[in-house]
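INTERNAL AUDIT FORM
Audit reference: QA-55
Scope: verify that the stored structure record matches its stored sequence.
Auditor: D.O.
Record contents follow.
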Amino acid sequence: FAGLLGLMIGAAGCAMGVQIGMRNLVNAMAGPVSDRAAVWGALGLFIGLVGLESGLWRLGGWLGCRTVVDTGVEVRLDLFRYLSGHSMRFFNDHLAGALGHRITETAGATGALINVCVWDVVPPCADFLGAMLVLGLVHGPMAALLAVFVALVGGGVVGFGRRGQPLHWAYAEQSARVGGELVDTVANIWAVKAFSARAREQARLAAEFAVEAGHQRRSWLYLEKTRVLHDLLLWGMAGAMLTWAIQLWMAQRITAGDVVLVSTLTFRILHGSRDLAFALFGTTRHLGLIAETLRDLGQPHTVRDCPRAAPFVPRGGTLEFQNVRFGYGAGQDLFHGLSLRVPAGQKLGIIGASGAGKSTLVSLVQRLDDVRDGRILIDGQDLTELDQETLRAAIAVVPQDISLFHRSLLDNLRYGRPAASDEEVYAAARKAYCDAFIRALPEGYHTLVGERGVKLSGGQRQRIGIARAFLKDAPILILDEATSALDTASELEIHRALATLMQGRTVLAVAHRLSTVAGFDRIIVLHEGRIVEDGSPQELRRRQGVFEAMWQLQTTHPLKTPSRHRAYR
């Protein structure tokens, strides 16, 4: 940036020198014909300065290319780094497409802001200062009048332009929202087709696009009004300056070269003042867009590492909830003084109706949210005092909805442990019973899975998720409905694989199918954020309580989902 600033100032200085060279050339040509040396000298100076100015501009372009592009990369990385530090609640409240659009748009606005400052702000400022100096040598009062006029016009245009700032911000906000809506619709194209909603969605998007177009037109037209105002002022001032210069020449107070110099500098300064005014106006637009993004993406992290955060050191995987209170938003708490201890190596099943807090409990173990009161300890270490990345590195998770990237199967499997060799990946896939179907695909392990893995069935995606857990080989294992998308035969195979995976690990398994946790060491039953039953499967069945009611319901009516049945409550 320092190099760019020096090059731009140098180029602007050469531009001023070119005007002086032209004046000297005209004056030399107006003198005696015999004084050819003065003419050729003035011409040489003129041509030399033109070439030097061009060279400095090209050097500025080369350096600007490197600077602006690298800055755009760094801006996007910085924004993504901060965005990825938000809690899951933040992402649940925002459209993924809109967030991605914000990052890209902000990087573009930053690049545009740099371009405006380097090529549209610095040169006119240097031109103005140089022109004032040169005109002051020619005619002081003329230079003073021009300076006052430029200051008034520039300030007026910027002030007029700032009044239209809400229009530009409204357009930027609507554009980001529409972009997010479009991405959301495309991401849910299956639902659009399944519910015959193509025409409906097209009409809805057409209405959104029409609102965006209205905001864009109002923003654009306001900018054109500002240009019209400036052009009228420029026309009047340029005419007045030229008339004054010619009168001074007729009075023989300045030379013909001075008239040429005044005319060229006047138009250069006036056009420069317009460019500068619109550049400053443009910077307010870009800064407004950046500020809007930072207000949205730059909200304080709700889950953040404390200054003294230490790396997590696994010591078996003992989990403790001590009087935990937690709830979403400002509503009623889900957990009220929840206490639970899971010894290292224990396999704990977590069951209950939908909304009872099962998935919330395991998400708190991963510190995807922070508790409002109480503590959660792993191996005696408070989660809030641990580095989040090292904590999650010690936890393998197989969720119900497996997230896959639009990358190869090999890359998706290796996501569990990036440093794993191909053979280690293949071994994990065999343990999860997905090696056979992967090798049957046209490109095998190098097959692209599509966005969120749409080219694979639900059961195949869950097998991939289980294989990633095998590969990660973490001391704590969380299963959140890990077999919900499997048929009965596949579930038996996966249960055998999971039995191997769970050996020697602390396991938390959320399940609706009680067969998934029938062989576990311990089961807790959650109801409205409270543990209403706790014990081994055999013990809970003997109690003839909620667990037994759910067991009988599933064995008697296997097609009914317990979360939708109220009898066991």
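Auditor finding: record pair retrieved intact. The beta strands are 319-326, 335-342, 347-352, 373-378, 381-382, 395-398, 476-480, 506-510, 522-527, 530-535.
Action required: none
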